[in-house]
């Protein structure tokens, strides 16, 4: 249930393109087996929530019926989140995705708060047994159960509205060494992890594009995970990208979700919309007489899908002018070590969503070196965008979405 881990049956399975090119490759767990495993686990966890918050307390009958009814409904609908994209009917696919993904978010918060409640109760019981305090354990049990339910609903409702509203513009100044004077104030607008798909459509993307265009960027960077679905399903919903406007144009690098969704088709479609895709390569931008190198790499995991897409920051910078400022677009922060050794000055990434909603941001460091914001790795600056959309549950609590406006300024050395 952690958005940063990208757990989705439709996303775990390689695309048909990948399978045709890698007939002997090791494949993940078959979908049916995976679905049965997930359904069993989800059922057990729902029962755990019910047993801890409902069965052990003297609630009125209607509360018990309503509580267990919700948990049973949620259990039955959770697998739909993994199957909805296979439905042929678009309306059914979208409605079922909305319901199942929303319930997934509620379930996630309920589970976390139930676990935290049990830890608290265990601590109180231990202190009571040690005669450190005297507690009305029955009252504490009931009050904390109610608090867990109210807390999960509050996180879900607030997170829903945060997810659906237009991303906030975050303005960042990045101090660059040896920055030519004419590049002082050079403005890059970064968007990332929009995830156009079951619950994010053309209207959502149009509002992002309109806001980006008001920032009068020198260049626009899209750092991957633009889509969750095939070109045939989503081409009309990504059309607003054609309206992006910046002095030096718009640039895109692939994220892991592009590879789950047919990366080769999406690369062609994004270029058709007028956005330049950088695949382990760079361009030299001439800005009022100064040169700025902008490079892009394929997703950190891309080599597992196509051998010729192996992510390679060193290849991306090969042949670039030695003394020009060098910026890398790389979907995952994990690319930073190679980017630093390759000689880049700034890396722009996404992927983490900043954890998307509480408490998952505390687990992201298990997977990525940086969660969100501006960081330093020796001579390399790394900026991690929290995501301009969301993935999975329409929920953003404690980690708001963002459109990043980065301004290059000289470093005071």
TrEMBL record:
PANTHER family referenced in this protein's UniProt entry, alphabetically: PHOSPHODIESTERASE YAEI (PTHR31302:SF31), TRANSMEMBRANE PROTEIN WITH METALLOPHOSPHOESTERASE DOMAIN-RELATED (PTHR31302)
Keyword Cell membrane tagged: no
Entry superkingdom: Bacteria
Annotated keywords: Hydrolase, Membrane, Metal-binding, Transmembrane, Transmembrane helix
InterPro entries: Calcineurin-like_PHP (IPR004843), Metallo-depent_PP-like (IPR029052), Metallophosphoesterase_sf (IPR051158)
Name of protein: Metallophosphoesterase
Residue intervals passing through the bilayer: 31-50, 62-83, 95-116, 145-163
Record domain Calcineurin-like phosphoesterase: where: 186-354
């Amino acid at each position: 249930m952690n958005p940063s881990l990208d757990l989705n049956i439709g996303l775990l399975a390689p695309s048909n393109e990948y399978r045709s090119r890698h007939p002997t490759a090791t494949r993940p767990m078959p979908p049916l087996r995976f679905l049965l495993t997930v359904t069993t686990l989800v059922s057990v966890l729902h029962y755990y929530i019910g047993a801890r918050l409902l069965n052990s307390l003297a609630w009125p009958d209607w509360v018990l019926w309503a509580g267990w009814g919700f948990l049973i409904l949620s259990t039955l609908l959770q697998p739909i989140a993994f199957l909805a994209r296979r439905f042929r009917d678009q309306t059914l696919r979208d409605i079922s995705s909305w319901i199942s993904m929303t319930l997934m978010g509620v379930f996630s918060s309920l589970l976390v708060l139930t676990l935290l409640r049990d830890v608290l109760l265990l601590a109180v019981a231990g202190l009571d047994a040690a005669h450190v305090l005297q507690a009305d354990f029955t009252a504490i049990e009931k009050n904390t159960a109610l608090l867990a339910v109210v807390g999960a609903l509050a996180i879900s409702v607030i997170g829903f509205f945060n997810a659906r509203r237009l991303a906030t513009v975050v303005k960042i100044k990045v101090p660059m060494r040896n920055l030519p004077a004419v590049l002082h104030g050079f403005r890059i607008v970064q968007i990332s992890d929009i995830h156009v798909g079951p619950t994010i459509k053309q209207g959502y993307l149009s509002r992002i594009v309109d806001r980006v265009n008001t920032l009068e960027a020198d260049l626009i960077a899209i750092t991957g995970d633009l889509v969750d679905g095939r070109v045939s399903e989503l081409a009309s919903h990504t059309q607003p990208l054609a309206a992006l406007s910046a002095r030096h144009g718009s640039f895109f690098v692939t994220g892991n979700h592009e590879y789950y969704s047919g990366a080769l088709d999406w690369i062609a479609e994004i270029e058709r919309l007028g956005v330049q895709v950088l695949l382990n390569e760079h361009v030299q931008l001439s800005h009022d007489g100064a040169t700025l190198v902008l490079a892009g790499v394929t997703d950190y995991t891309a080599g597992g899908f196509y051998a010729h897409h192996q992510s390679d920051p060193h290849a991306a910078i090969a042949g670039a002018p030695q003394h020009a400022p060098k910026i890398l677009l790389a979907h995952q922060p994990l690319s930073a070590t190679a980017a630093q050794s390759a000689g880049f000055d700034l890396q722009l990434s996404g992927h983490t969503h900043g954890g998307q909603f509480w408490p998952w941001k505390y687990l992201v460091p298990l997977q990525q070196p940086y969660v969100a914001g501006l960081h330093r790795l020796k001579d390399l600056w790394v900026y991690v965008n929290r995501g301009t959309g969301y993935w999975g549950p329409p929920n953003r609590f404690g980690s708001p979405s963002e459109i990043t406006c980065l301004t290059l300024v000289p470093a005071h050395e």
